[in-house]
Amino acid sequence: MKVKLNLLCSTKRRRTCIVFFLILALGVSYVSSTEPKSQVSVMKRRWIGAVICANILLFGVHSASVGFPNIPNKDDLSVVGVSIYNPIDDDITDDDPTAPMKMTHMRVRSEIAMRYVRTAIICNVHNPRRKSQEATFNLLLPDTAFISGFTMTLGKETYDAYVKEKEVAKQIYDDAVKQGTSAAHVATTARDSNQFTIKFNVEGRTNATYRLRYEEMLVRRKGVYNHAINLNPGTLVPKMDVVVHIKESQKISVLRVPELRTGNEIDATEKDAQNTKAVIKRGNNEREATITFTPDLAEQKRLAEIYAEKSMRSADPDFFSIGYDSGEEVNKNEGLLGQFIVQYDVDQPKNGEILVNDGYFVHFFAPKSLPPLSKYAVFVLDTSGSMGGNKISQLKKAMNTILSDLNQRDYFSIIEFNSRVTVHTLKEAKDKKKIQHVIASPENIAAGKNIVSRFRPSGGTNILHALEQAMNLIQNVVHRQNLSHYINGTETKGNELEPIIIFLTDGDPTVAETNTDRIITYLSEKNSGEKQAPLFSLAFGKFSI
């Protein structure tokens, strides 16, 4: 999915208008970067006219609300209007011309019902200068989430937004910045489709509040539903609070709040430490629970120091921290940066559960008696020079966990690649070319961990040949009949194995073929037909927090 989201709020002394753009395009392997050039609105001095094209939504202006904003109904549409905007009082201004933008309050509210979550992030920003200034806030959303609304409050007025073209939004925003008026611009790229950048141009001596709402369907993984909230204000916030409310149709059987995740750690389990600052309050009917997290400045500073220590251990020069940016050249991320995670599960009826609402139904079922499928896993591991520092440590830690979780009926192979591609031999044999896959016995798993522990980053990134070799292994093994063994008296043959490729890398190809479109086309053709295997990728990079 490619998501392009642009928002513009432009203010003149007594006339205010907001435009909000959203373009959604779906693709299988990649999405074309061609953008439509049609103009969909023209702004004049005293009025705004709109030429409404396909996929353009308009929302109305309403009074500012102090409490948590309701999630709007998608059918609640009206025309954008205008209203008066007043600056803040003089007694809370700062005459210092270098005073940075200040985030005074950050609130996060999540409502979970029937494993579906609606989340709102509300941030208050204050410009103490007499002149307008621009600030940037980077927000990381879950991969499966989609934005359902954006509003901005200027003074006492709150403005909803409507969808519009990308280029037009950017142009109007730039014009507003030149005039020194309040404006906001939200954008994302296809590659980083879950990271949204909100740019504020706030008039001097005024406050601005934005509310971003998004929704997602929770997925049950390892026996629990995981709800992750990315907290990255980039600065210490005087008031910060997170509230997650769960209301389910079945009894909540598991509820955990692990410590804030401040790195590329794997999913927490019941054995991991819990967040002592999170307050859990269960309802009387055992189907409801409320989790509250209100880190004060001392706790935020402690969490920021933990993240800073992990960052310093990384030797990656391209390390990038996302968060609030005041626009200062020497700005550093001083606030906490991590994921607040709530894990829960509900009682699973034997025959599943069917829920009906407004003519739609959903069927939940999680069978426990089915045995896991036997699989042949090919691990394709990047050890290029850019994997140095913390990334190679994370790769080794991830592989130790993954190898330990293999079932005794599974087979696996390990491919290491940098400028060259190496298929590691895990078992002694007379003909080493034929022994490139082994059963997941304790001895072979230990041998695999030993190989991974000796990885040293160097060289370039030869993605094409590495994945091509993995597909060759899959295609050679899937149709062989001599891969059979006995476990507890039960025979498992090679043609019963489900093949998968697990691909771990941190960057773009730099060796052999480097054009990603041609790589995707070639590998898609090769990995087709009866011999195809699903490919799962784990990326290490600047947005992995």
UniProtKB/TrEMBL annotation:
Residues 376-545 form the VWFA domain. InterPro entries: ITIH (IPR050934), VIT (IPR013694), VWF_A (IPR002035), vWFA_dom_sf (IPR036465). One of its GO terms (cellular component) is protein-containing complex. Transmembrane segments: none annotated. Pfam families: VIT, VWA_2. It comes from the Eukaryota. Residues 87-216 form the VIT domain. This is Jg6266 protein.
